[in-house]
Design goal:
two-stranded antiparallel ribbon
Length: 237
């Protein structure tokens, strides 16, 4: 790790190889940590999923977000969801799922994955601060039909620390999109989650396979050690 006064730090333990962070070009991307997916009784659980698998992400991710904020790393949040009239939801997507548990149907926390509903918003523990970017996306990937590319370009961001849910769907899709656009991505292994442990394991292995075909992976403990290099002494924890 480099000095706290330099803008560059490394994560030697990253897979498949050492990963370098530049504070001036890095952002933390927090994908879809929404009540519909994470809260007991919500949409995710109504489909028979174990939301406890996703909720293990909340504590380490809260810690990572806090240090990123102290370090001056931009935090960008995303939410998957649709306009109330569902005009931005393709029919093929709208038809998926069990009757009464489809997008737009009434769930425990409002209409499922509809913007403005309680369930569509981010869990309280990870709520965005005023001024942080929140990207509302109609697809699985964070780049499709959103302003994310423009946000990153205008901020000079070339590296993404990727977190959120679910590992094999929205996280994977976003990392693949980012890779095609030339971004360097590091997926924080304990800050992404899947309802299915096997999907979690394989999804992470796929990211860093073949010399980092889509990016790098590392646990939050090692990422935090690097980010602390960017935290001004007055803000150190």
């Amino acid at each position: 790790m480099t000095s706290a006064h330099t803008p560059v730090a490394s994560i030697p333990s990253a897979s498949p190889s050492e990963f370098t962070l530049d504070a001036s070009t890095t952002a933390l991307l927090v994908i879809d940590m929404q009540r519909d997916f994470l809260l007991p009784g919500g949409f995710g659980e109504s489909l028979g999923n174990d939301v406890g698998q996703l909720r293990t992400v909340i504590e380490p991710l809260a810690g990572l977000i806090a240090v990123a904020r102290d370090a001056g790393i931009p935090v960008i949040h995303t939410r998957e969801g649709h306009l109330p009239d569902l005009s931005d939801c393709p029919p093929a997507k709208l038809r998926r799922g069990a009757p009464s548990r489809r997008i737009g149907d009434r769930g425990a926390f409002g209409r499922i994955l509809v913007r403005g509903e309680y369930g569509h918003d981010i869990v309280d523990e990870l709520a965005p601060l005023e001024g942080e970017t929140v990207i509302d996306k109609p697809g699985k990937g964070a780049f499709y039909a959103t302003e994310l590319s423009e946000v990153l370009t205008s901020a000079g961001i070339t590296t993404l620390l990727v977190t959120g849910v679910t590992t094999e769907v929205c996280v994977h899709t976003t990392v693949r999109e980012a890779n095609d656009r030339g971004y360097e991505c590091l997926v924080v292994t304990d800050c992404v989650g899947s309802y299915f442990p096997e999907f979690q394991r394989v999804g992470l292995e796929m990211i860093s396979a073949q010399g980092g075909i889509f990016g790098w992976t590392a646990p939050s403990e090692d990422v935090l050690a690097a980010l602390i290099a960017f935290v001004p002494t007055s803000a150190s924890r």
